[in-house]
From TrEMBL:
It comes from the Bacteria. Signal peptide: none annotated. Residues 214-276 form the UspA domain. This is UspA domain protein. It comes from Beijerinckia indica subsp. indica (strain ATCC 9039 / DSM 1715 / NCIMB 8712). Gene3D superfamilies: 3.40.50.12370. CDD domains: USP-like.
Length: 277
């Protein structure tokens, strides 16, 4: 995971997002490329961009861009992350362009990265927006790491895979192989009643063990809890510092109206989630 895209925006989780990104980047000697996230007029009409007023004039957009750039540069300088050069071979940082990038722009640009890191979406002003997360997830063709309110002390030492048998989860596991190969413990969990047609948990473990990954299975206790809650509860009991899950088995609209495992996890998770679609 040598290339990580980090959208920068003024929300309450931004410091945690940057800390989580750096924690991952140090493991792989990655280049973190920052990009100033901002509104696109066409997207504002249908999106949930939470700002005090609509930013349309060039001066305001320039100020927003410069604030994001300063925040990124200050963080990287404060953590002694060097600027990327043609000779860079280890941890470094870089910056994208000289103007704001929309959510869709982030989704498109992320196609040339190994990963994009966003904050856990929330409701209300000052929270990371779901439109950013969904653009990264659906438009990039790349995995997304969702950072939570508090950056974890470790990332990827104990990994839980929420396996339901479907192709999205299989694709997410493939994207996560660099992390799985470094993990000390990998647990493939399933929730009774959540499974779709596909290989059983034991087959997933056999496949991972072919790569030398220390993997095992466990069944989450559903009880009266929702499937998403059962997954998170099991991850907590197992001491996981990362959850791997496929994104949106059901359509986004259906999950929005009726709920679903992805929506439940986004609403309740306390640990970073690695997700792909």
């Amino acid at each position: 995971m040598k290339g990580i895209l980090l959208p920068i925006e003024d929300h309450v989780l931004m410091d945690s997002v940057m800390e989580t990104t750096l924690l991952l980047a140090r493991q792989f000697g990655s280049t973190i490329e920052g990009a100033a996230l901002g509104p696109n007029l066409a997207e504002l009409v249908a999106a949930d961009f939470s700002l005090s007023g609509v930013i349309l004039d060039d001066r305001a957009r320039r100020e927003l861009f410069e604030a994001s750039r300063r925040r990124f540069d200050a963080f990287m300088a404060g953590h002694q992350v060097p600027r990327h050069t043609d000779e860079s071979t280890g941890l470094s940082c870089d910056w994208m362009g000289d103007t704001l990038v929309s959510d869709n722009g982030i989704g498109e640009y992320a196609r040339v990265f190994d990963l994009v890191v966003v904050g856990l979406p929330g409701a209300g002003a000052g929270q990371p927006r779901r439109t950013t997360f969904e653009a990264a997830l659906f438009e990039s063709g790349r995995p997304v790491l969702i950072a939570t309110k508090t950056p974890p002390p470790t990332l990827g030492e104990t990994i839980v895979i929420a396996w339901n048998g479907n192709t999205d989860t299989a694709r997410t596991i493939a994207f996560a192989m660099p992390l799985l190969l470094r993990a000390q413990d990998v647990i493939v969990i399933s929730v009774p009643g959540l499974r779709l047609p596909g290989p059983p948990d034991e087959a997933v473990v056999r496949g991972l063990r072919r790569h030398g990954i220390k993997a095992r299975t466990q069944t989450a206790r559903a009880g009266q809890a929702s499937s998403g809650h059962a997954i998170l509860e099991a991850a907590t009991e197992l001491g996981a510092d990362l959850l791997i899950k496929g994104g949106y088995t059901q359509s986004r609209l259906r999950q929005l109206i009726f709920g679903g495992v992805t929506s439940e996890i986004l609403a309740e998770t306390h640990l970073p989630v690695f997700m792909a679609h």
